[in-house]
Amino acid sequence: MATTNGKAILIGIQAFLCILEAYLISKISLIGKIGIAMFYKQYRFLRTGWKTFLLLFTIQLLLILLLHLAKKRLPARKANYTAAVFLILAIIGLWGTYYDFQYTFSHRLLKEKFHLGFYLFWLGWMGTCVYYLAIKPAKQESAVALAEAAEEQMPA
């Protein structure tokens, strides 16, 4: 299983990426700011960097928690399938985001920095999935091995 140090580094990297993502997303174009202010009020939080950071970082932490619990409680094969499914979802999300930003006129007006923030979000998601696919599960000792070790420890 991954060390606590490895998970702390993963969370630190995700925090840094989320700060960068939030900064880029908050640099929305003037037309985008006007559109959000007038028509798409539900996306108002995207104009504020710290609110965007909290949302993106919470999502990343939930992903890390889900994959950690899967790695800890499921057999290795199922835990890897879980991480692979989330990786596929991230690839689909990245493709969908790219497609939407390229072919929806109003989203093209939001400019490259805004787009890059969301691309980084999906790349960070993929990085978490790859991390959990790469780490080895904790070695579980069998009951027989534990019994043999206990017998060796007993005085004769």
UniProtKB/TrEMBL annotation:
Q: Which UniProt keywords apply?
A: Membrane, Transmembrane, Transmembrane helix
Kindly list the residue ranges recorded as spanning the membrane: 48-67, 79-96, 116-134
Q: What is this protein called?
A: Uncharacterized protein
* Natural source organism: Filimonas zeae
